[in-house]
Design goal:
Layout: E1 4-10, H1 15-32, E2 36-41, H2 47-56, E3 70-71, E4 75-79, E5 86-90, E6 94-95, H3 103-112, E7 115-121, H4 122-126, H5 130-150, E8 157-163, E9 177-179, H6 181-187, H7 189-194, E10 199-202, H8 208-222
C-alpha cells in the first residue's frame, strides 16, 4: 500500500519575474517534491472525492462507500494562477475506507506519509451529532498517538479539513480559509481539544472551483 506521492515542478514563469520570486518557489519545490500524503476520515467525509479530484480531475456524484482498498490513478496537473503556477504529479496510490476496520491500514499510511489530511463533516460536527463527535474523538486520539510514536524525527505535516462548509450558513460565504485557535475553540471545541498542533482549514468539495481553491490553499500552507 502506497500513499499518494507528489512531485512539483516550477513552470510558467517569464524571465522578468524569476528574480523576484525565485527564492520563494525554490522553497516550495524543496518542500513538496517527492512528499507522500494520506487522506483519513470517517465514511462520507470526502476522502474518495478528494482523491478522485486530484487524480482524475472529477468530483464524485453521490456517495459510494469505499469497502476495500482500491488502487488510484496517476495524474499530472497544474494549480495556481498564471504567475504562481505549480505542476503536480501524483503517483499511483490506494484509496482506503473510513470504517474503523481500516484502522490498521490508516496506521500504515500514517507511518509512510509526510502529510496527513484528516477530513471531517463540519455540518454534523457543528450540529452536535453524537456519532460524528464520538468518531472524531476516537480518530484524533489515534492520530495523536501515532504522531507521538512515529513523528519524532520526520516532522509530519497534519491538516484537518472541515468539509461541507457550503452547508453551514455562517461559513459558506468565506471559504476556503485557514482558521486560528480562537475560531476553532468557538466553532469546533472537540477539534480544539483533540487536534492540538494540527492546522485546520474550512472548505467545500461541492464544485471543481471550490475543490481546487481548497487544495491549492492547503498545498501552499504545508509546503512552507
Amino acid at each position: 500500500m502506497e500513499p499518494i506521492t507528489t512531485m512539483v515542478l516550477l513552470i510558467g514563469f517569464v524571465l522578468s519575474t524569476i528574480v523576484a520570486i525565485k527564492s520563494n518557489w525554490e522553497h516550495i519545490l524543496i518542500s513538496i517534491n517527492g512528499k507522500k500524503f494520506a487522506f483519513l476520515g470517517d465514511k462520507g467525509t470526502g476522502k474518495t472525492t478528494s482523491i478522485n479530484f486530484l487524480t482524475k480531475n472529477i468530483l464524485s456524484v453521490g456517495y459510494n462507500q469505499t469497502r476495500y482498498v482500491k488502487k488510484t490513478d496517476e495524474r499530472r496537473f497544474y494549480m495556481g494562477d498564471n504567475e504562481n503556477e505549480i505542476y503536480i504529479s501524483l503517483k499511483k496510490s490506494s484509496d482506503v475506507g473510513g470504517d474503523t476496520a481500516f484502522y490498521k491500514e490508516w496506521e500504515i499510511l500514517f507511518k509512510e506519509s509526510n502529510w496527513i489530511f484528516y477530513i471531517v463533516q463540519s455540518k454534523l460536527l457543528i450540529n452536535g451529532d453524537r456519532d460524528t463527535k464520538k468518531r472524531i474523538e476516537q480518530d484524533l486520539d489515534l492520530i495523536q498517538g501515532w504522531r507521538n510514536n512515529y513523528d519524532s524525527k520526520s516532522k509530519k505535516k497534519l491538516v484537518i479539513i472541515c468539509n461541507f462548509c457550503d452547508q453551514v450558513d455562517n461559513l459558506k460565504t468565506d471559504i476556503p480559509r485557514q482558521i486560528g485557535s480562537d475560531e476553532i475553540r468557538k466553532l469546533f471545541p472537540l477539534i480544539n481539544e483533540k487536534g492540538s498542533g494540527i492546522s485546520v482549514f474550512l472548505g467545500s468539495l461541492l464544485t471543481e472551483e471550490s475543490a481546487e481553491k481548497l487544495f491549492e490553499l492547503v498545498f501552499r500552507h504545508i509546503s512552507r
